Known about the structure:
The protein is mainly α. The protein has helices at about 1-20, 25-60, 65-80, 80-85, 85-100, 105-120, 130-140, 145-155, 165-190. It starts with a helix and ends with a helix.
Amino acid sequence: MTMAWIWTGMVACSLAFGALTGNLDALGGAALEGARSAVELCVSMAGVMCLWTGVMEVMRQSGLSARLARAFRPLLRRAMPNAARDEETLSAVSANLSANLLGLGNAATPLGIRAARAMARGSEGVASDELCLFIVLNTASIQLLPTTVAGVRAALGAAAPFDILPAVWLASFGSVAVGLAAARLLGRVWRD
């Protein structure tokens, strides 16, 4: 609801300043151009999303995503011992982290919701430290292949859409490290 008010305020301010400065024609042209560009981007991104969703499905059917998720389990058992007790929860957490690792945020979202719901069972409305840690890992997420960002770059005409890999790796490792440190620190502060 807040975003609706912000966008409405921005449009109202644009219209007011366009009228005051006599640039309503330019404002109308820019609005139409923006709408056209948005539709073109959405259509081109739909193709990219179909491609990577298909790749994820092939990985799932071939068992590769299950093996990738299994590789995370020893680490997750140490980081989230309570979630590790339930195989379904651990499987959803592992699959979510695997999808995020491959840059498939849209595929990771339903898995993350399923894992968060399972982790929240019996918590009486208060998020556990493990659930908060999972949310941090899901939000910051290390990405080896930023497929969505590369798709946007390709749709906008980038010659080498994956040339951002070193920056993405550095930023994602940094964000996960800071997120994990903050989660641990805040978990101790609130416990005391």
